Structures are given as C-alpha cells and as structure tokens.
C-alpha cells in the first residue's frame, strides 16, 4: 500500500495535527492562528486544540523541539537546553548587537513611538549609525511622524524584534524598575 493511502486513512484530527506540524516546521517564522485555520480549513479553536496536543506530545516524549506562541502566532523552535549544540553547528553569520545597539533598541522598545532626537537625548550621543543598523536588521521601523514642527520620524519595534527576543508581545518586556535594578548589580 502506498504511503499516501495510509496517510489519507488517518483519522481527521491526526491528519490535521500532522499537517499543522508540517506548516509550523516549514513556516520558519510565527504563523498566525488565522492563517493556520484557513490553510487547514478548520476553526481557530481547533487550531488551538491541535497546538496544545502537539505541545503535550513534545513535552511528554522529551522532544528537542517545542511549539511556542510568539509575536501573535505559533512557531516551532528548539528547546533552550539544546542551545549550545545549535550554536556550535550554526556559528552566527552576523555579528551580535553592540552595547550601543542594545541600549538604543531598549529605549525604542520601552518608549515607542519615539524620534531620533528623543533617543539621542536619552542616550546622550548621536545614534545615526546605530539606528541605521537596527533598521537594516529589521528590528525597528518607521511608524509615522510626530505632530510637531519638522514632523520628525517616529520609530518603533517590529515583529522580528519580538521574534528575536522570544516575546509574544511588548507586554512581556520586564518592568523598567526590574531592568534598572539588574543593571546595578
């Protein structure tokens, strides 16, 4: 019997769960529940149930992969405890973010929307090069113009920022008091 015939004879829920797993595997980025439901021709509630089933299966069987909700969608990713193996295999192609870039990115994340002049006032230095770097990496973007003389550009973070830092939304950023206290240690 051909594999396709065996697959087609699977119960509908198992077939949908397997298809969902494939979609998350090839998606590479977070895939919204709406897109998953549309592709599988099932409801978003059914997508949520299938995701929970896969999460439980992966946890129960000790898989190296997990499914997380990130940036408003679901993404298949590796478990943190295996990061050292992955880092060894995939040496970073791009240099990591500099301290200046991380500081600028933090200011944008917490104060967005924010202008370049406001960032420079908070950092105390020019940020032209750092801001260009963050824009080119897709971590920040222009989100509009401030309604003041000169109509300066406003900057904010992108979904790639959320993905890069493993956040579902900006609400998951630690409170500023917590960030300030950890920086003093």
Automatic annotation (TrEMBL):
Cross-referenced Gene3D superfamilies: Winged helix-like DNA-binding domain superfamily/Winged helix DNA-binding domain
Gene Ontology biological process terms in this record: cell division; chromosome separation; DNA replication
One cellular-component annotation, GO: cytoplasm
UniProt-annotated location(s): Cytoplasm
Superkingdom field: Bacteria
Principal location: cytoplasm
Key word Cell division present: yes
Keyword Cytoplasm: yes
Function: Participates in chromosomal partition during cell division. May act via the formation of a condensin-like complex containing Smc and ScpA that pull DNA away from mid-cell into both cell halves.
Name of the molecule in the record: Segregation and condensation protein B
């Amino acid at each position: 019997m051909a594999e396709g015939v065996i697959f087609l004879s699977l119960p509908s829920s198992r077939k949908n769960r397997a298809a969902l797993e494939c979609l998350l595997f090839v998606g590479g980025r977070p895939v919204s529940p709406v897109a998953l439901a549309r592709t599988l021709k099932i409801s978003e509630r059914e997508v949520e149930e299938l995701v929970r089933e896969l999460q439980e299966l992966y946890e129960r069987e000790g898989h190296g992969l997990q499914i997380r909700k990130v940036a408003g969608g679901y993404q298949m990713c590796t478990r943190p405890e295996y990061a050292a193996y992955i880092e060894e295999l995939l040496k970073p192609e791009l240099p990591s973010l500099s301290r200046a870039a991380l500081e600028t990115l933090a200011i944008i994340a917490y104060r967005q929307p924010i202008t370049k002049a406001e960032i420079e006032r908070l950092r105390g230095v020019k940020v032209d090069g750092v801001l260009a770097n963050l824009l080119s990496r897709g971590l920040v973007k222009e989100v509009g113009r401030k309604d003041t003389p000169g109509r300066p550009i406003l900057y904010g973070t992108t979904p790639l920022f959320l993905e890069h830092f493993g956040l579902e939304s900006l609400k998951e950023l630690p409170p500023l008091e917590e960030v300030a206290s950890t920086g003093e240690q």
